[in-house]
Design a protein that fits this description.
D-Amino Acid Oxidase, Chain A, domain 2, globular, FAD/NAD(P)-binding domain, 19 strands, alpha/beta, 2 domains, 27% strand
Length: 371
Amino acid sequence: MNERIIIVGGGIIGLALAWRLSQSGVAVTVIDAGAAVPPATPAAAGMLAPSFEELAGPISGALYDFSVASLKRWRSFAAELEAESGEAIDYRPFGILGVAMDESGAAALREAFEAVTALGGAVEWLTGDETRAIEAGLSDRVLAGVFAREEGQVDPRRATRALREAVSRRGGAFINARIRRIVRRGADAIGVETAGGDRIEGDRVVIAAGAAAAAIELGAAAPVYPIKGEAVALRARGDNLRCVVRAPGAYLCPKADGRLVIGATEVEEDASLEPAPAAIEGLKRAGAAAFPASGAYREVERWAGLRPATPDAAPILGPVPDGPEGLFLALGHYRNGILLAPETAAALAPAILGGEISPLLGAFSLARFKN
């Protein structure tokens, strides 16, 4: 197969897609702006948690189904990626605990629990004591919990390195550049033009550039915009959590290297990558309220990233409805790029290679924003 596929974006969505495409024998080139446009992936905590997302809007059901399908795919995806890359990605399917620390929080958690149960989600309602039986270090103030036993997390930075290695081993190429526009020949997309004026040509072009896609002349309006998120990593002292804990005002994600990642804020209309000190201290306090031991942990890193949001909080996937031909979008995964990467790649790769478009992609077409 002599197809040449250009993927703009070196985050987990672009890399997962590049890996799946390269496994089909096509020549893949990933164009990544690097430090010039920091991707959202390294800033993410890596939760795989469809049961804890707020679902609203006309395609919320489709998004939930897509999320659950991707969660199920993660187990084989992780094993295959580690085997092919030789890199460990810290995939931890140990469950996610949502906790409430007062009566109003317990009522809200119960409502969320019932909503997920109605969708067929595998979640369990727990008393405070039952919650602490799973994570003994949680505060005595925890009144109730919801346990999603099948959910978990992965280390996004390790997964990114593994994907780059897997793509490289398959013959994929990487170019460090910012993309300015799509290059067309008649009705077809035949490549991209960099900010420096260079042209890179191919048979198909995929835009997976996250929030940075707004700066690329696509020939179609894709409503993706940045929402800032801030987080902090602490060094645990041997008494770290085992599973992810979703607490009021923070989530806590323990990593295999001894870090505890606490996140994350949501700040609109701020595209800076500087974490606000007050926001970081607020996350630490919220984390320590649920897991008191973390109050003594040493901070090792703080950061901010830009989530690629859309008006309905769901991704934009598939071909551009009005062309140009050969241009595909894999954008707007918002808080769930890590979770949705395996299913996005599995569903979109066949469409890019000229096969049938998966029914899973129909709900996420750019066309839904035309009305």
